[in-house]
Specification:
The structure is a single chain. By secondary structure, the chain is α/β, with parallel strands linked by helices. Strands 3-2-4-1-5 form a five-stranded parallel sheet, sandwiched between helices. The chain has a five-stranded mixed sheet with strand order 6-7-10-8-9. It is globular, with a radius of gyration of 23 Å.
């Protein structure tokens, strides 16, 4: 595999199951001069499993600035570097964004090597529409700050996705139910792709009792997908008439509704019913 020198490769690694790594990722890790890892011990086990002997160096939240400066110098001197995190895609709720930013600022080529991500893994089995979703990551630890953040997210109609640690999962679920409302549905992903993988769908009101019913359910790393806010009631759909009529002159009913949804942020059902009325000449 031929690769240019002086390149930063951002390499996704498995979130649990080792066989989820791509052939391209393995080729990249073998061919670079250096691997910058969040935890060299953790990544070292993965490299040993695949017989990869590329040297590792640490880049984590406590040394990211100094380590990034050193790595930039190495890449400017012609070395190629692969950035990996403990699991999943680097720089998504993990260290690495600073290195990527500084590499780009220095004119160094940055190449993504895509692969596993806990975020998309859970969304794919959530059953929620992922046309729009908002990835928050880890909520604040302190209760007051967490509640304020959730208040700001409360009105979003997109699916909300959070990461959470095992020792905070109960507090997190309690806060979600209190601020967002217990009637919203949530999909709890625990230890995704690992031996004790669990995916459980319930309401926010039922989530904490489910977690507390079995101590084993409180272990491992968590991803939470929470149903977005309901579409607000619109008592005057005729306010979209001008837009719908203009679109219907040139487009099919389905295409007109789709574009109107994108422009207004309004739900499909309301716009479709109104567009249907307009095409049938039943305005009023």
């Amino acid at each position: 595999m031929s690769q240019s020198s002086g390149t930063l490769f951002v390499v996704a690694t498995p979130i649990g199951h080792r066989e989820d790594i791509s052939a391209r990722a393995l080729d990249t890790l073998r061919s670079v001069d250096l691997i910058a890892a969040e935890d060299t011990r953790n990544s070292g086990q993965l490299m040993q499993h695949y017989g990869i002997r590329t040297p590792l160096t640490a880049l984590h939240e406590h040394n990211e600035r100094s380590a990034s400066a050193t790595l930039i110098q190495k890449m400017q001197s012609g070395s190629s570097v692969a950035l990996v995190s403990d699991a999943g895609t680097p720089a998504i709720s993990d260290p690495g964004a600073l290195l990527v930013e500084e590499a780009m600022a220095a004119g160094i080529r940055v190449v993504p090597i895509p692969g596993p991500s806990a975020l998309t893994t859970l969304l794919s089995v959530s059953g929620f529409s992922a046309r729009h979703f908002f990835f928050y990551g880890f909520l604040p630890v302190k209760a007051g700050a967490r509640a304020r953040e959730l208040e700001g997210l409360k009105g979003l109609q997109a699916t909300l996705v959070f990461y959470e640690a095992p020792h905070r999962i109960q507090d997190c679920l309690a806060a979600l139910a209190e601020v967002l409302g217990g009637e919203r549905r949530v999909v709890i992903g625990r230890e995704l792709t690992k031996l004790f993988e669990t995916v459980h769908k319930t309401t926010l009101a039922g989530a904490l009792p489910w977690i507390e019913a079995d101590p084993n359910r409180q272990r491992g790393e968590f991803v939470l997908a929470v149903e977005g806010a309901s579409q607000p009631a619109d008592t005057d759909p005729s306010r979209y008439d001008a837009l719908l009529l203009a679109l219907l002159e040139k487009l099919s009913l389905g295409d007109a509704v789709r574009i109107a949804m994108q422009v207004t942020g309004t739900g499909r059902k309301l716009l479709y019913e109104r567009a249907l009325q307009l095409t049938q000449g039943t305005r009023g």
